[in-house]
Amino acid sequence: MYRKNLGKIILLVFLFVIYIYILVIYHIPDEITIFEGEDIALKTFFGITLDAKEDVLTVSANTGQKTIDAVGNEKISVSLFDKLFIKNVDVSVLPRTTVIPMGNIAGVKLYTNGVLVVGMSEIEGEDSKLYKPYENCGIEEGDTIVKVNDDIIYSTDDLIEHVNLSKGKNVKIQYIHEEKTKECSITPVKTNGKEYKLGLWVRDSAAGVGTVTFYEPSSKQFGALGHGITDIDTGELLNIASGEFVTAKVLNIKKGEDGNPGKIQGTVEEQETIGEITKNTEFGIYGKIQDLSSLNIDTSREMEVATRDEIKTGKATILCSLDNQTVKEYEIEITKIYKENNYNNKSMEIKVTDEELIEKTGGIIQGMSGSPIIQNGKFIGAVTHVLVNSSTEGYAIFGDLMLKQSKEVD
């Protein structure tokens, strides 16, 4: 009996170790971007090694961490016990740079590629019967319609026009589902109003307010929010064709409390264009500034972007604007750092400690996402989320992750 139980325990331990290796390998990305001289922050485990061609990797005598000092692109191989090849990781090394942390509230207008399907409903035909023309066509909420009868669809008006032109005949629809292009046919239903409908609810744009995180003078690029913009109905990241960055007017501050997050209420109507948005990613939105004067940029704040090794738990500050003009600095505390996190925007846990900010907002509220974080005179990251059950606590993204995203903006 003892030997039998011992055998089961050994098997369970073996399977658990295998499971850990699988998890670690799964989270090793295919590509990463680092700054010149920055440690390669890849989470490894006993026996998992990183290697590259001769003279590329430098190993720190104190920490054992590996870095690549030369700016450019390199390939690192990941292996198990230097025997079993696992994968290659493409590493892009960027030169160290400086940015101007912002903290300004601004408006965002995004326009999708095609039209986003956000819902479906039965259609009452001219015979007063209910129809589901979309049934069994394969289109789902979150998919994007890009063509009808081989004509490109740019907006909801385009889609309505093409469907009405069909006069009830089958229309060929090209759509994108989970990044794959697919086709189907739908027969529109004629309504009592003499219109033809598919039974699909669609949207071609989104708008809101958020905080500008940084401006990089050398490239005129900006980063904002620290997280992507998702559709309110589907929860999917919006696949954008274009976007505008505009000035915003703060109308009201709804104070947050535990269990009920607050928000900055503002408007983007009749505001000035600041620049264009070219990219909407899970790490924020990015583009180029065209009108610097509208942001009242304080060039004296230009500073280096900190590497992850330079970020410490403890005191830091954030910049944000809660009125329509002034950007102020408020105290926070960094409570946890997830140094090896390259896969989402929850890089650090933070807590608002500034009494003035807590009095105004209750802590972290919607619209403060993107507020830049400064520590020891360097830009280290941006606020991204609030914890629903604790309005003074939340998450932040590393500044290097945001800057690396901006570098990929063409």
Tell me the layout of helices and strands.
Elements: H1 2-26, E1 31-35, E2 48-51, E3 57-59, E4 66-68, E5 72-80, E6 84-94, E7 98-101, E8 105-120, E9 123-124, E10 130-131, E11 144-148, E12 151-152, H2 156-165, E13 171-177, E14 180-186, E15 189-190, E16 196-197, E17 200-216, E18 221-224, E19 240-247, E20 249-254, E21 263-267, E22 273-281, E23 284-289, E24 303-304, E25 314-320, E26 328-337, E27 348-352, H3 355-361, E28 372-375, E29 378-387, E30 390-398, H4 399-407
What are the salient characteristics of this protein?
Pdz3 Domain, single chain, six-stranded antiparallel beta barrel, Thrombin, subunit H, mainly beta, Immunoglobulin-like, 45% strand, 3 domains, 410 residues, 30 strands, six-stranded antiparallel β-barrel
